[in-house]
């Protein structure tokens, strides 16, 4: 893993959001390796192979919803311990409560703010919430 101390998997189908997240990690979280997947299925495969320290999961993916992907992660012994951070354009209080009730470790709304992403990722990587 080289100079990287931790690994985060970002599952997102929007290329602009993927690019923005890449820049956030490069600038604000340089010791964290950002792995990327543009579908839930690919994200699940990478999660099982690489066992990242954190997964950032878009709720509105085209192949599986973020909820279905979370359920799959939590059903597998090797991935159930990995905290999963939801990211979504759905920003209503009920959306956030539903996500936390489903087992997501946190919730970031789109368009996401650099500071919010950085602080939330740092907190989850150090065992906080």
Automatic annotation (TrEMBL):
Keyword match Phosphoprotein: yes
Output the Gene3D superfamilies linked to this UniProt entry.
3.40.50.2300
- Identify the InterPro entries for this entry: Bact_response_regulator, CheY-like_superfamily, Sig_transdc_resp-reg_receiver
Q: Where is the Response regulatory domain?
A: 7-125
Give residue numbers for the modification (4-aspartylphosphate). 58
Question: Would you say which domain of life the source belongs to?
Answer: Bacteria
Q: Which PROSITE patterns match?
A: RESPONSE_REGULATORY (PS50110)
Q: Does the keyword RNA-binding apply?
A: no
**Keywords assigned by UniProt?**
Phosphoprotein
What name does the UniProt record give this protein? Response regulatory domain-containing protein
Lineage of origin: Bacteria, Bacillati, Bacillota, Bacilli, Bacillales
């Amino acid at each position: 893993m080289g100079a990287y101390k931790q690994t985060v998997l970002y599952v997102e189908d929007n290329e602009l959001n993927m690019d923005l997240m890449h820049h956030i990690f490069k600038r604000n979280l340089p010791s964290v390796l950002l792995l990327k997947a543009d579908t839930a299925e690919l994200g699940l495969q990478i999660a099982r192979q690489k066992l990242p320290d954190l997964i950032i999961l878009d709720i509105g993916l085209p192949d599986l919803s973020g909820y279905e992907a979370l359920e799959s992660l939590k059903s597998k012994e090797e991935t159930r311990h990995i905290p999963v951070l939801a990211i979504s354009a759905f920003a209503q209080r009920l959306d956030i409560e539903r996500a936390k009730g489903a087992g997501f470790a946190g919730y970031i709304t789109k368009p996401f703010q650099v500071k919010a992403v950085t602080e939330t990722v740092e907190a989850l990587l150090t065992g906080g919430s």
